Amino acid sequence: MRTSRGAWSVAGLVAGVAGLATSYCVAMILTIRDSPVVAVVEQAIRLVPGGVTEKAIRLLGALGKPLLVVVVLLAVGAAFAWAGRMRRHSWWRPLVVHAVLAAVGAVAVLRQRGAGAIDLLPVAVGLGTWVVALTVLVVPLRRAELVESAAAEHDAADDLPELGRHTRRGFVLRAGLLTAVGAALAVFGRSVGQGRRAVEKTRRLLKLDGVTEGVVPVRARVDLEDVTPWRTPNDDFYLIHTALVVPAIAPADWTLRITGMVDRPLEISYAELVQREITESWVTLTCVSNEVGGDLAGNAWWSGVRIADLLAEAGVQAGADAVKQTSDDGWTCGTPLEALTDDRGAMLAVAMNGRPLPVEHGFPVRTVVPGLYGYVSATKWVRELEVTRFEDFDAYWTDKGWAERGPIKMASRVDVPRSEAEVPAGPVRFGGVAWAQTVGVAAVEIALDGGAWEPVEVADPGTDHTWVQWVGELDVEEGDHVVRVRMTDKDGNVQTGVEAAPIPDGASGWHERSFRAVSA
Questions:
Q1: Residue 390: DSSP 8-state
Q2: Of 428, 397, 399, 431, which is closest to residue 413 (Cα–Cα)?
Q3: At residue 341, does pLDDT exceed 60?
Q4: Fewer CB in 10 Å around end: N or C, the chain?
Q5: Using H for helix, E for strand and C for coil, what is the string for 443-485?
């Protein structure tokens, strides 16, 4: 029997997968949030240039991170197979491959926020498993080559088929056993490490005094089917974050530190926070990656504690102009100090649409700041507010080329009719949403096929911190058409038609929809 390169590659791959499974199991048992693979993927996300990240968000949406996981696993799998082939001729070369992979995992783990020596244990266990498992798997392969060599030397070719079958059975048995054990360990680790499940149960049972569901103002809605709902349900609210595995934090384990240029540094527990006065308001959040007409925006009823009150209690020192926010997963952003202390009502939110925050949206506490894009304000799982100066730090996205301050640009969108829709010729109703946060929407206009701008009806939600719905009607002849929309804010500024990409400070331009009018 002549063992093939494929058998040695399979040996390396099986050993590698077994190591990943034991590493994951240990990480889950120790309730470490990031297994080494997850840590590597999250570090890769952090290293991707801002422009590439923005394109990935636009093209792939929620599939971006799972796709990156697949790419990383394929690359690691190729390295495992390569190590297996090298084991055929050298005992030490596979050790180098495994050591390099372990070093990459260790560095990624240690770069995670709050990582310590214990976080390296899964890496060490995985490395040990790779070495031992590969040694176990190569024994029958090495025996097969020795048998082949001896048989050839003594001209015993008649015995080769039976010997070959025996060695193949031994290899398959060992590979299957290792694969089964690895799968069992992964399942076991997942079952005993369900911190997220426990946190979800706590969240569902949590009762927050002073939190209401919020009543949608009657005048906030227009009478037109298929316009974006004014209130965005929690399950439909857009999600953008850099965490591959979102932090699962029990309220009892959460604290917030207010540090930096303050007279009296504070540390506040969750119980202390929710005992303070609760403020509630409607606020529309928008991602800076939102294209003109995009759907990376949502409006919700937020409940929480005013950040301005906490900063006043800490005593902000002269010269400060920024607050560096830090998430539990290490993500950072820089927020203008004035946006957290003026009358816009920036808050540490504990509830969304009347319920404790969903874990994906920052449970137990996140920041909500009206009028600023999320990349400079909306910190999920917030852990620290450091009062400082913009010149003294770099934040996650600004370090990738995005603008420092991030005020939300005025925007408007056509929801009805949908792109490429067919509508009856004659009177056609159009509708959509528009926003100019902290200033407010004064007027919305639409234009058909490049013609004159026509005013439409604009709903009045009674706040300038949210989007507004609008509706209008135009006579439309048969054929293909394009409708555009623009808005004017309450300061008299007219939305620009100059097109700009999201990077570095948000997209601009007029949104348009193409549709066809047909005879009834």
A1: G
A2: 431
A3: yes
A4: C
A5: EEEEEECCCCCEECEECCCCCCCCCEEEEEEEEECCEEEEEEE
Average pLDDT over residues 33-55: 77
Quote the CA–CA distance of 179 and 187 in Å, as a whole number: 12
> How many angstroms separate the CA atoms of 39 and 45, rounded?
10
pLDDT exceeds cutoff 90 at 281: yes
pLDDT at 163 over 70: no
Pairing of β 255-260 and β 382-388? parallel
27: tokens are: 């990480």
State mean pLDDT over 293-305.
96
Q: Contact, 455 vs 466, CB < 8 A?
A: no
Rounded Cα distance, 263 and 261, in Å: 7
Q: What 8-state DSSP symbol labels residue 217?
A: -
Residue 335, Cβ density class (10 Å: 0-12 exposed, 13-18 middle, ≥19 buried) = buried
Residue 486 per-residue DSSP state: E
Exposure on the CB side of residue 244, measured as CA atoms within 13 A: 23
The residue assigned the tokens 């990409």 is 501
Locate 7 and state its tokens. Answer: 């058998």
User: Cα angle vertex 33, ends 27, 39, to 5°?
Assistant: 85
Q: What are the tens digits of pLDDT across the range 229-254?
A: 999 999 999 988 887 678 889 999 99
Give the residue carrying structure tokens 């636009």: 58
